Amino acid sequence: MNAARIELSRRQRLAWVWLLTIATLAAVAVLPPLAQPQEYHRFADQRTVLGIANFFDTVSSVAFLIVGAWGLIFVCRDRKSRPPAAFAGPAERRSFAVLFGAVALACFGSAYYHLAPDNERLAWDRLPIAVSFASLFAATIAERVSMRAGLRLLPALLALGAGSVLYWRWTELYATENLWPYVAVQFYSAAAIVLIVVLFPSRYTRETDMLGAVGIYALAKIAESLDQEIYALGNIVGGHTLKHVIAAIAIYWILRMLQKRRPAVAAVSRPGEQTVRV
User: Fold this and answer.
1) Are 136 and 163 in contact (CB under 8 A)?
2) Higher per-residue confidence, 86 vs 231
3) Nearest to 45 by CA among 247, 234, 217
4) CB neighbours (10 Å) of residue 250?
């Protein structure tokens, strides 16, 4: 990664990020509307246990509450350290506080959805997911591209993330249903985070841990897509249940990164903003 950074100027690296952004926007604009497949709601493991419908898919959502609350506690406690270990400045905590808060809320949205899966409840499941991706994207920008830009973009990115879910629901109820904006928010954010990690140095140590988190989340999506096949292996657990657990591990990997990282050697490049010399 260091070689790629040396070979490309900052302007060229930013151009790659803009190219991905423009390509994503163009794809969403030209692709035909995408409706939510109703078979998505028919999960493999539909067992009722202790009176709880779809027990394992529902209860496994608690993993999000555990790791989200853990992350929030860490972000708040780090404020009291002198100097802060995980953050060079207090403003940087905002994106990660939103991330872990949204992940914690995902527990309730996911459980609510899995008790009686349908499109209306699915929106409450997806809303905190979209906010999580948006906040992590903003945090990555602040850490590697520009702290000022990341902080300023956070509200707009959160609005776009939440808006993608609201737009899907609006188009389902009043127009031609279109899921593409939500899909774009999730997969564009992941792709852009990877691209930024590869092209821009971090202002902290543990700079490749973010790639590990994205990779773990990719495994969660694979498990989700193999829901029926995994459950058929022995009727023990479905792929969607595993998706919840693995996705929570991906968030824990980010928390672990924050717990272990330290600020790298930094210098002031322009008023109010720090950059790293690597």
Assistant:
1) no
2) 231
3) 234
4) 19
Q: Is 206 left (phi over 0), alpha (psi -120 to 50) or beta?
A: left
| CA dist list (Å): 110 to 69, 93, 136, 215, 257 | 16, 25, 20, 22, 25
Helices 93-115, 239-260: crossing angle, 10 deg rounding: 170
Percent of the chain with pLDDT over 90: 82
Residue 4 is predicted with a pLDDT of 55
Partners of 49 in the β-ladder: 52
What distance in Å separates the CA atoms of residue 182 and residue 218, rounded to the nearest whole number?
Answer: 17
**How far is the C-alpha of 120 from the C-alpha of 168, rounded, in Å?**
11
Average pLDDT across the chain, whole number: 91
Alpha helices in the chain (DSSP H): 2-7, 10-30, 55-59, 62-78, 93-115, 119-144, 147-174, 180-199, 209-225, 227-232, 239-260
Q: In the structure, what pLDDT confidence band is assigned to residue 276 with cuts at 50, 70 and 90? A: very low
- 239 pLDDT more than 50: yes
Q: Classify residue 202 as exposed, middle or buried by CB count within 10 Å of its CB (0-12, 13-18, 19+).
A: buried
Q: If you write DSSP's letter for every residue of 69-94 in order, what string do you get?
A: HHHHHHHHHHTTSSS-SS-SSGGGHH
Beta-carbon count within 10 A of 193 CB: 21
Q: Is the pTM of this model over 0.85?
A: yes
Residue 52 in 3-state DSSP? strand
Nearest 10 degrees: Cα torsion 40, 42, 44, 50: 130
The pair of three-digit structure tokens given for residue 158, joined into one six-digit string: 């959160």
Peptide bond into 33 cis (omega under 30): no
pLDDT 10s digits, 60-76: 999 999 999 999 999 98
